[in-house]
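Sequence in, structure out.
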Amino acid sequence: MASTPTTAPEFPHHSVSSSGASTPSFSPLYQQIKGLILQSLQAGEWRPGELIPSEMELAARFKVSQGTVRKAIDELAAENLVMRRQGKGTFVATHAAQQVQYRFLKLHPDTGDLQKEGRAQRSILECKRVRASAEVARLLQLKSGDAVIQARRVLTLSGTPTIVEDIWLPGHTFKGLSAEQMGSYQGPTYAMFELEFGVRMVRADEKIRAVLPDEEQAQLLQVSTSTPLLSVERVAYTYNDTPMELRRGIYRTDTHHYRNELS
C-alpha cells in the first residue's frame, strides 16, 4: 500500500495578474486535503462502502483544523465520491448503495419510475478478449493492439428489449471477466467492477445522437431499420481521470426517455 503524507503540501500554480505577468499562487488548504484524501481512495486505503476516518482523525493526521477537513469532505460528497450517513460517519461511495445505483442510468420510463420498473434483465451475447482498435485504444488511453475485453449485451425493461450495449474494458485490469460473470451478478455492473476488480467508476463523459439501427441492432431490439433510436457513447473514469470503460449503447425511446438533471 502506498504511503500517505501526514501533512498537506502546497501545490503551486501560476495565475496571470492584471499587468500580464505570471505570479505564483497556491491551492486553498482544503483543496490540498481533498487531494490527499483522493490519493488514499485511489491507492485503495479505503474500499468502496468502507467507513473512512472521522474528521477529527483526519485533521490530526494531516495537521489541519477539523473545519478544513469538513470542507474537503463536503466537496467529495458533492462529487459522489463519499457518502455521509447521519450518526454513522462518512463512507466511500459505492455503486452497490441503493441511492446511487441509478446514477449512470439516464433512461427513464415515460410512466412510473425506475424503482417500480425494476432491474433490467441482461442477456450477454458475447464477452471476449480482443486487440484494441486505434479508436478504442485512444478513448481508453491504451496502445493500439493492447488487449481489451469486448462485451455485447441486451437490456430488457418491462419485457421489452430496450438497449443494445457494446462495452470495452482494459484487458490487464479486467483479466478473467466472463459472460457468465457479467450475466449472473445480480447487482449493478459497476458494483461488480468494484467488488471483483477493485475499479470504481467516479464520473463519465457521454456523447448523444439520433441514429437508425443496423440490421443486427434492429433484430435485437425488435424494431425496423427505419426506427429512430438514441445512440449514447460513454467513457467512464475511475480516480485520477483514468478511463476504464468505453460503452456504446443504442436505446429505444418509444416507452422511455433520456433524462439528465442539470445543476
